[in-house]
């Protein structure tokens, strides 16, 4: 059915719909500009939306509002496809209506209403492949709210049920992003007693390997590279090839929620810092013992 997903875009009203949903008016918005309330049927069920006539409501004077025009065009589009034997165009148009309304609506309930509308759409559409795209947008919303476990679960269903559909591919990519390991670290530029820590920020890792390697500051100055943060690939390869002065492996607490976490590694214990010879060092970190690392 994928090839039918956007068949509705060839409808007579599609050009007008693209113009209306852009929100552009050409002139400054009037003082009585119509606003799309998040509590309105725009983010309700398809039946509620089709029965909604905001342009006829008392107090609505901005009769040329692109929002009102878009709502009317979406109603026309949904009614046009209501009796299609293949529900794909109808479902695609209804999902597009929900996404448009979620982006145009105002009010503190927008996020809650968007999530409820997407969940209702998914339940109604059953196993149709349009649910994969709906699940992607729902998972994104849940991810933005900070629940990466639930976001991954939502996306994984679509990635497994409709792996070749556009939404299924997007969901698989989202799952990969959530599961991807990440690692960065910061520490003080000068180490002295009382000894500082190396702060590790990570997710989806259980172990990291830290190394100290002697840095030839004079050579970098002669090469015109005075700043330690200005590293190109050749610099990194050369640094990774340096022998380790000190090395330490750190077991990290799990991040079952897929969120970033901080873990402090005291340099006094990890590198026996009191015994280090005075000088400059590179701090190297990797989640693999061999390979490219964070320098």
Description of the structure:
The chain is α+β, with helices and mostly antiparallel strands. Helix content is 42%, strand content 13%. The protein is built from 11 helices and 6 strands. The strands form 2 sheets. It has a 3-stranded antiparallel beta sheet. Strands 4-3-6 form a 3-stranded antiparallel beta sheet, with no helix packed on it. The radius of gyration is 28 Å and the shape is elongated. The model is unreliable at 1-5 and 7-12 (pLDDT under 50).
Which helices and strands occur, and which strands form pairs?
Elements: H1 14-21, H2 46-51, H3 66-80, H4 88-104, H5 110-125, H6 130-144, H7 148-161, H8 166-179, E1 182-187, E2 197-203, E3 207-214, H9 217-222, H10 233-240, E4 246-251, E5 261-266, H11 267-270, E6 281-286
Antiparallel strand pairs: 1-2, 2-5, 3-4, 3-6
Helix pairs in contact: 1-3, 3-4, 4-5, 5-6, 6-7, 6-8, 7-8
* Average residue-wise pLDDT: 89
Number of DSSP helices?
A: 11
Could you say which structural class the secondary elements and strand pairing correspond to? Answer: alpha+beta
As a whole number of angstroms, the C-alpha radius of gyration is 28 Å
> Span from first to last CA?
49 Å
Give a quick account of the main beta sheet: strands, pairing sense, barrel closure.
3 strands, antiparallel
């Amino acid at each position: 059915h994928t090839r039918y997903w956007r068949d509705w875009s060839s409808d007579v009203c599609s050009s007008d719909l693209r113009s209306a949903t852009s929100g552009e008016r050409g002139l400054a918005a009037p003082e009585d500009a119509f606003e799309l309330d998040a509590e309105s049927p725009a983010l309700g069920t398809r039946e509620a939306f089709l029965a909604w006539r905001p342009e006829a409501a008392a107090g609505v004077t901005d009769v040329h509002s692109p929002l009102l025009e878009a709502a009317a065009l979406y109603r026309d589009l949904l009614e046009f496809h209501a009796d299609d034997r293949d529900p794909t165009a109808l479902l695609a148009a209804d999902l597009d209506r929900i996404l448009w309304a979620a982006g145009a609506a105002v009010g503190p309930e927008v996020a809650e209403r968007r999530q409820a509308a997407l969940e209702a759409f998914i339940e109604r559409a059953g196993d149709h492949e349009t649910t994969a795209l709906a699940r992607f947008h729902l998972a994104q919303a849940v991810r933005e709210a900070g629940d990466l476990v639930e976001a991954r679960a939502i996306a994984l269903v679509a990635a497994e049920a409709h792996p070749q559909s556009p939404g299924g591919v997007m969901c698989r990519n989202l799952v990969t992003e959530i599961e991807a390991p990440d690692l960065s670290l910061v520490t003080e530029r000068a180490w002295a007693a009382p000894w500082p820590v190396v702060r590790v920020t990570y997710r989806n890792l259980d172990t990291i390997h830290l190394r100290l390697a002697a840095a030839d500051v004079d050579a970098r100055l002669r090469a015109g590279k005075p700043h330690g943060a200005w590293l190109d690939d050749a610099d990194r390869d050369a640094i990774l090839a340096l022998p380790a002065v000190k090395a330490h492996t750190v077991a990290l607490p799990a991040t079952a929620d897929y969120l970033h976490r901080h873990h402090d590694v005291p340099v006094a214990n990890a590198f026996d810092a009191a015994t280090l010879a005075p000088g400059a060092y590179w701090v190297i970190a990797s989640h693999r013992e061999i390979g490219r690392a964070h320098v």
